[in-house]
Amino acid sequence: MESAAIDTLLLPTCWRVAQTMIALRRIISRTARCGIGSTFDDLALNVLACRAEGAGVAGIIVNRCEPSKAAEVARYLGAASDRFGWAAPVLCAIPNGDPTLNQPSVLDLETQFALSGGELLVGQQHRHRRFSHYELVTTSLPGFMSKLKRLRLAASGADTCFVTHTSRSDIIQALLGHRAMYDSLERQTKEPPFAGGLILTGSSLHDPLDDFAHDYIKLAKMPVLRSNLSTAHTLQAVKAITPKMRATDGERVRSIIDLYAPHLRDGLQRLVGGSASEAVHRQTHGRAQAPAHAPDPMPGDAGATAPAMTPAQGRAVQTSLSAG
Questions:
Q1: Would residue 290 count as lying in a domain?
Q2: Which of 17, 42, 202, 286 has its CA 20 to 30 A from that of 65?
Q3: Taking the CA atoms of the chain, what radius of gyration do you get in angstroms?
Q4: Is there a single domain that holds both residue 108 and residue 238?
Q5: What is each CA distance from 4 to 39, 211, 274, in whole angstroms?
C-alpha cells in the first residue's frame, strides 16, 4: 500500500498522482486534511482522478484533526464515502501533535531569507530549533525588559523568536543579556533552558548594524538571523514559509513517527484485518501477484483484491511498524 498526500485542488496534480500510482501498480490510501467542506471537495476530486486512471482507493486517512472533532469528521467522511460510492473506509484520524511541528525551523528561515540576501549571523548549531511564536518588538527598552522579566517569572516565552529592526541596538543588547542570564539561572535553579531567537529586519545596505552590536552578536548563544527585508515583509515571509521535513532533524522526525505510527498501524489492521504482523504476512504470502499488464481493480468491483506485496515490501512494512 502506498500513501500519497494531496494538499491542493489542482486537477493536473491529482491526475499525475493517479498516473504515478498506476505505473507503480499500487492501491492508494488517500490522505486528507481534517475538515468537512474543503476536505470533501478534495477527496471527491482525487477519487475522480484515480478512477479515471484505473487506480484503486483503499481507504482515507484524515490528517491533523482536533482530537475533539476527530470522531465527528471521520463519521461524516465515512457517510460521504458510502453515499457517493467511493468504497473507501476511513482508516484512521491523526490528531494534531506538538504545535511547533508545524512551525518553520531556523534552517527554513535561513533558506527563506537567503532569497533576499539575508543570512544566519550566528547559531548554526541551532538550525533545527523551532519557536512557539514570533513577537515584534517596537517598545521602549524599559518596556521590553519588563516584558522579558514577566515572561521569565511566568516560566513562559523561553522559545519565542523576537523580531526587531537593526537600528534597535538597545533591544539587541537587552535580549543577548537576557539570554546570558539564563546560563546563570539554569545552574542555580530549575529554570527551563532558553530556546528563543532573534530576527533583525532592515536592509543591510541602508540599515547597517552598529559595529559594537555586531561584535556582541558574534558571541550570542542563540540563533540570530538577518532578513534583509523591511519589518512588514519579514513578517510576511515568515508566515509564508512551508516547514520542511529534513532527515537531519532527528528530534522532529522521531516526534512525527511517534505521533503517526500508532494510528497508521491501526489503519493497516482495519484495512486487511487481524494484527499488524498478520496483515503483513497475508500481504506478503497469502495472495498471488497480479498480472503485470492488468490495472488494479477498484475496491468494490467484482473480484477486487489488494495487490500483493513483494517479500521485500512486506519486510519494509514490518520494520516500520516495529520501529513505531
A1: yes
A2: 17
A3: 25
A4: yes
A5: 15, 51, 24
pLDDT in tens, 84-143: 888 888 888 888 777 777 789 999 999 999 999 999 999 999 999 999 889 999 999 999
> For residues 163 and 225, what is the distance between their CA atoms, to the nearest angstrom?
10
315 and 206 share one domain:
no
∠33-36-41 over CA atoms, to 5°?
80
Give the residue among 252, 234, 218 at the shortest CA–CA distance from 161.
Answer: 234
Inter-CA distances, 187 with 83, 183, 211, Å: 62, 7, 31
Contact 279, 318 (CB under 8 A): no
Candidates 37, 31, 34; CA nearest to 57 is 31
| Distance, CA of 121 to CA of 20 (rounded, Å) | 42
Please name every residue paired with 197 in a beta bridge, in sequence order, or none if there are none: 161
Q: Which three cell numbers stand for residue 96?
A: 494534531
> 70 and 182, same structural domain?
no
Q: By the 8 A CB rule, do 74 and 90 touch?
A: yes
The boundaries of the domain holding residue 69 are 2-98+269-323
pTM over the 0.70 mark:
no
